[in-house]
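A reminder from the course coordinator: this example appears on the midterm review sheet, so study it carefully.

Given structure:
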C-alpha cells in the first residue's frame, strides 16, 4: 500500500516536472491539448510530450493545441506529434521566435493566435507547409 502511494506520487512528480506536458480535454468538436511549456533556455531537441490521453484517443486525434508557459521558440515536436492540429493558441508571456520548423509538420493548421506574446522573429519559410493557414 505504501509502495503504491509512493509510486503514484513519483509519477505525478515526474509528469509535473516535464518541460512539455499536455492535459487533454474533449468537447463536442475538438480534442485539445493544453500544453504547459517550461523551456526558458529555448531547447528544441524534445522527443516526447508528457501527459495521458483520454481512453480511445491518440496524438493523431488532437485538433487544438493551447500553449502556455515559458519558451523563446515553438518546439517542432508539437507539430511532429500533433500532425492534425487545426488551431493553435500561443499564450507565452515573453518574446518568441518562429523558425522554419516550428509549424512545418502542421499541414492542417488553419488558425494561429497569439495572446500576450511578442514575436521577435519569424523565419521567411515559417509557414511554407501551412497552405490552409488563413488566420493569424
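Designed residues:
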Amino acid at each position: 500500500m505504501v509502495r503504491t502511494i509512493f509510486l503514484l506520487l513519483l509519477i505525478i512528480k515526474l509528469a509535473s516536472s516535464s518541460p512539455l506536458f499536455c492535459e487533454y480535454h474533449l468537447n463536442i468538436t475538438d480534442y485539445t491539448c493544453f500544453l504547459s511549456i517550461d523551456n526558458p533556455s529555448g531547447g528544441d531537441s524534445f522527443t516526447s510530450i508528457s501527459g495521458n490521453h483520454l481512453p480511445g484517443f491518440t496524438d493523431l486525434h488532437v485538433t487544438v493545441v493551447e500553449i502556455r508557459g515559458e519558451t523563446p521558440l515553438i518546439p517542432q515536436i508539437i507539430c511532429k506529434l500533433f500532425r492534425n492540429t487545426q488551431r493553435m493558441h500561443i499564450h507565452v508571456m515573453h518574446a518568441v521566435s518562429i523558425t522554419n520548423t516550428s509549424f512545418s509538420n502542421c499541414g492542417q493548421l488553419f488558425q494561429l493566435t497569439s495572446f500576450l506574446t511578442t514575436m521577435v522573429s519569424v523565419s521567411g519559410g515559417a509557414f511554407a507547409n501551412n497552405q490552409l493557414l488563413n488566420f493569424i
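Helices lie at 2-16, 77-81. Residues 1-16 have pLDDT under 50 and may be disordered.
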